[in-house]
Design a protein that fits this description.
The complex is a heterotrimer of chains A (204), B (213) and C (282). In chain A, 83% of the residues lie in helices and 0% in strands. With 204 residues, chain A is mostly helical. Chain A has a domain at 125-204. In chain A, helix 1 (2-23) packs across helix 2, helix 4 crosses helix 5 (92-123) and helix 6 (130-146) packs across helix 8. The longest helix of chain A has 38 residues, at 156-193. Chain A is extended and about 65 Å long. Chain B is an all-alpha fold and 213 residues long. Chain B has a domain at 127-213. In chain B, 75% of the residues lie in helices and 0% in strands. In chain B, helix 1 crosses helix 2 (28-64), helix 1 packs across helix 7 (166-205) and helix 6 (134-155) crosses helix 7. Chain B starts with 6 loop residues before the first helix and ends in an 8-residue tail after the last helix. The longest helix of chain C has 36 residues, at 246-281. In chain C, helix 4 (65-84) packs parallel to helix 5 (98-112). Chain C is α/β, with parallel strands linked by helices. The chains are: A mainly alpha (204), B mainly alpha (213), C alpha/beta (282). Chains in contact: A-B, A-C, B-C. Chains A and B meet through helix 1, helix 2, helix 3, helix 4 and helix 5 of A and helix 1, helix 2, helix 3, helix 5 and helix 6 of B.
Chain lengths: 204, 213, 282
């Protein structure tokens, strides 16, 4: 029983006291302390992702077809951590390793989407219906609003592209943002009312 | 400009080309480099957090300044690792940090995010529908009707009576324009990332172009 | 198999090669298409050109190397304007890799303005965890939010610049370099809506273009005062600050790649409708 009750009480007491101290300047020190505590606690929980990742890849070591990849990942992960802890993240070797791996790989991996998005233009964006046609036309105007060739071809392109971004796009995204905000707030209220306890996990 | 003689630049170029080889065809080199990236990225996250935050919290805040109350959030953070314990009397303790974070997170949603993402948006939407400038008037009408229509599309999942169902329909059209705009911007963004890599390969590595005019 | 059917079954790798060829072509032999300066870039120029000696700009590098081509040029141009006017720049990062992007930017600024002294004219606070709670804490005490140290692990109390930047409220302007979350979605509620806008302070976002649609409602509502969208804004800012760089040199490649995407859209649709017509005839 206490295994769910204690965490539940903690979330209510911390959450409500945070709201109260934010509203009352006399006790704002409590909110400021909780802000700091939040930062510290997340910093000390940083290993959780790496542990989960390691568990998956240590298990993979038993599968011959995954052996080489999982070994590489484990060496890269622990090698980086050990090097960083010995040298600190400002060490020369660490910086070289970082600049040779993360910097190019992150950009290269994301830039693959440029190829896929180009093929999507050929294979997926079809004027099958009024909705699809609207989407395609908006895409074309916004695309050419963003690059110099649009204005070079016709001065009206950037004007229409900007209007599409500023008015219909803003209206659509605003409604979605408002819907998400309402959903998040309803969940927060449910947490404080004790109706939302899924974060406490299943079981006792 | 001439071709680079730096080992680091060659290795960086090699990493980039290894990733692009995967676009041509899935291959072991691509997968190997992909795994290196995941490992190094996770490792770097840990090193940065420890170096820039966890270590100075202990050495400066606690040992130097004597702020021993910070031991409490450290303990809260560390309790999250009890989830890996098989002992049921211990592993429930990982719910304590989660409860702490959910409590503060919910409070922030209600006190900060709701105002920014809902109240301010409502205020900004309802602008005067009558204006001397016809363009502003049209824009304001499209904005108000557009937002209400998209909201009605989400809220009324059932069939509305004839005449009223025009709102969700209009909302769908507005959303499609929004998604088209999203595609248009995504093209620019993703081409930029590719451009950055090509500028590196042609400039820093092969020395064919100047990366800085 | 008809021509249109053959076309629709074209190997994707032909499209990939075409994309690479036209982009490389434009990078090697740029056409120099004129770049129009938009209202946002002009607004950004005015905002940062108004900095006076001693004013502090806080830059949050909330992006990685993947977002750098889109964002870095804009941010560097803003920093350049501030430093040229005798202002000072302090940077932080909500992304671990953002701290390195800040280092690249400061290195470039030091090359352009060799008189700059670290800790006096600029400082990189580095990556700090907590996302929006970092912003909230920094509104109360920046030193506490940073656990007392800068990116190099040095005690912040030794730097003169930090004496004038006790909290984020002391910065004249905050820029968020936004490539995802944490980023503008955290800065808007915690800083812009809660503090900057009610106090008539600008809040600037330089974002990768992919974020333009989701950030649009906050621009229209005035929660984001100046919005620099992707590499296009970067190129405009480079032209305004008269320091042409990677953004300007990449715009022709951008134009050609966009034309290719457009041509493929047309071809895809023509082939779709022609095939539909052929099947109807049969």
């Amino acid at each position: 029983m206490y295994r769910r009750t204690i965490p539940f009480i903690i979330s209510i007491v911390i959450g409500l006291s945070y709201i109260l101290s934010g509203a009352l300047p006399e006790i704002s020190a409590w909110k400021n302390l909780l802000d700091k505590w939040f930062q510290i606690s997340t910093a000390f929980a940083v290993l959780i992702g790496a542990i989960s990742l390691s568990m998956v890849h240590f298990r993979n070591l038993r599968r011959p077809e995954r052996l080489i990849y999982s070994t590489t990942l484990i060496i890269a992960l622990y090698g980086t951590v050990v090097l960083g802890l010995i040298q600190t993240s400002k060490g020369e070797l660490y910086q070289t390793w970082y600049n040779m791996t993360i910097v190019p790989l992150e950009a290269a991996i994301l830039s693959q989407i440029a190829f896929y998005i180009t093929t999507a233009a050929f294979r997926v964006l079809r004027m099958r219906s009024l909705e699809a046609s609207l989407m395609l036309i908006a895409a074309v105007f916004v695309m050419f609003y963003n690059v110099p060739v649009g204005a070079a071809v016709w001065q009206g392109i950037p004007v229409i592209g900007k209007w599409l971004m500023d008015i219909p796009n803003t209206a659509a995204m605003r409604a979605i943002t408002m819907g998400a905000a309402l959903g998040a707030s309803a969940t927060a209220i449910r947490v404080f009312l004790g109706l939302e306890r899924s974060y406490l996990g299943g079981g006792e | 400009m001439q071709i680079s003689t730096s080992f680091a630049v060659w290795l960086t170029a090699g990493m980039t080309l290894a990733i692009y080889s995967g676009v041509y065809k899935e291959n072991p080199i691509y997968r190997l480099v992909e795994h290196i990236y995941v490992g190094v990225s996770a490792g770097n996250g840990i090193v940065s957090t420890i170096d820039n935050y966890a270590k100075p919290t202990i050495t400066i805040d606690i040992f130097q300044n004597g702020t021993y109350s910070y031991l409490i959030p450290i303990l809260i953070g560390l309790l999250v690792y009890t989830r890996f314990s098989k002992n049921r009397n211990i592993n429930w303790l990982n719910r304590i940090p989660l409860a702490f974070w959910v409590g503060i997170g919910s409070a922030v949603v209600l006190t900060k995010n709701f105002k920014a993402n809902f109240i301010s948006q409502v205020t900004a939407t309802f602008m005067p529908m009558i204006n001397n400038d016809p363009l502003i008037m049209v824009n304001n009408i499209v904005m108000v009707v557009g937002v209400l229509s998209v909201l009605s599309y989400f809220f009324f999942s059932f069939e509305l009576p004839k005449g009223l169902n025009v709102f969700p329909k209009f909302g769908r059209y507005i959303m499609m324009i929004g998604f088209g705009a999203a595609y248009g911007n995504t093209v620019l963004s993703r081409m930029s990332v590719l451009l950055g890599r090509l500028q590196f390969l042609l400039g820093n590595w092969l020395g064919i172009i100047e990366t800085r005019i | 198999m008809s021509f249109w059917e053959k076309l629709s079954k074209m190997d994707n790798r032909i499209i990939y090669t075409a994309l690479l060829v036209i982009m490389i072509w434009a990078l090697i032999w740029p056409m120099g298409l004129p770049i129009q300066i938009g209202t946002s870039a002009k607004a950004a120029y005015e905002t940062f050109d108004s900095f006076e000696s001693g004013d502090i700009l806080y830059v949050s590098f909330d992006y990685d190397s993947a977002g750098a081509t889109d964002i870095q040029s804009s941010i560097e141009a803003c920093m350049r304007l501030v430093l040229k006017n005798g202002g000072r720049v302090v940077s932080g990062a909500l992304w671990p890799i953002g701290a390195q992007q800040a280092n690249y930017a400061f290195k470039k600024m030091q090359e352009e303005y060799p008189h700059l002294v670290e800790g006096v004219d600029f400082l990189n606070l580095g990556y700090k965890p907590g996302g929006q709670m970092y912003i909230e804490k920094a509104m109360d005490s920046l030193i506490e939010a940073c656990a007392n140290v800068d990116n190099e692990g040095r005690n912040l109390s030794q730097f003169p610049i930090m004496k004038d930047l006790v909290t984020l409220k002391d910065a004249k302007v905050v820029i968020c370099g936004n490539h995802g979350s944490p980023g503008a979605s955290e800065w808007v509620p915690m800083y812009a809506t809660a503090y900057a806008i009610p106090n008539n302070k600008p809040f600037v976002v330089a974002a990768s273009a992919v974020n333009a649609t989701i950030n649009a409602p906050f621009i229209q509502s005035g929660q984001i005062t100046v919005y620099l969208n992707g590499i296009r804004a970067g190129a405009e800012m480079e032209l305004l600050t008269e320091k042409k760089g990677t953004a300007v040199s990449g715009m022709d490649a951008q134009s050609l790649s966009h034309i290719l995407v457009f041509v493929l859209m047309i071809l895809g649709n023509v082939s779709y409708f022609m095939q539909k017509r052929e099947s109807r005839k049969q």
